[in-house]
Please model this.
Amino acid sequence: MFSRSVSQQMKRIDLTRRIPMEERVSTLPSTVLSYLSLLLILTLVCYESCKQWSVHHSSHLHLDQRGSATFEIHIDIMMHRLPCVLASLDLENSVLAYRVNMDIMKQSYDKEGRFLMESPYDQGYKESHDSVYSKSMESLKNSEGCRLKGIITSERVPGNMHVSAHDFRDVLWRIQQVKDYENYSLDLSHTIEHLSFGPSNHSLSEQRVIMSHLPSARIAPLDKTRRNSPMGTNYEYFLQVMDSRLVTLSQGAFDFYQFSVNSQDYSMSMMPAIWFRYNMHPVQILVTEERRTFYQYLTNLLGIIGGIYSLVYVLDLIVYRSTLQLLKKHRLNKLY
Model:
């Protein structure tokens, strides 16, 4: 007797009670809702299955703790109408007041774009100013340009690098004394083929790997930037550089730098230049590749099935009871 009462009490909390087949009623609205719910469940399950095998990125910010005191600047810039013998690339920062960089090669090219001769960055400093003057006049008459390409090693502090001809003011003055060159000033029209920041072990192959994993990374946003303006135009680029680290699932971790850029140009009567003013941020962006666990996948599937089933049940109940009320009023002629 006691066991029977306990059994009856336990049956009262049965969560899966069965309705006898003869009492079940199938209606057209419930059938339509059932098919729609099955289609929606199938669509969402396929979507979740695709996300299960896809890689997503999570980003975090924290203080930069990298121990390296230096970093590299990779630069490749084409000066369309600046003689190579005059061109110089200088570096200035808050630690080293002024320095002429020693890792740049200069390569002149003609107006057809054919490269002519390659020389070290300090070519003009080793020659007399008379020789620099004669070579400059020859380059100007032949409409030659100059390519500056190389790697600059700098302390990780705010600073700037600039392209100009600051050490040859007397040569420029002599050029202006020549007929047809009275109004001559430096023409710094240029194309930035490449500009990026990186640690000492950074390479272009690593950069391609980073871009394949993280297409939105702003490693070299100035690449292929072309600027053409009248003579005497001064260009300024303001760069905000931030250290970044990408941790991939298959290829390990990569350290790199991203930067945003703003620019302006204006005419000036004194010696114009192309300025790249950069500022180093003290935080690091950590980007991690991740895949969802099977536990998360299973939880989402159960949530989809249970949520849609509950919603369809409620909708079907509302439609069914509303239909019964309408039929009842119709039989009593109370619809209007």
About this structure: Residues 294-331 form the longest helix (38 residues). Helices lie at 2-11, 28-53, 129-141, 169-176, 204-213, 294-331. The mean pLDDT is 81.
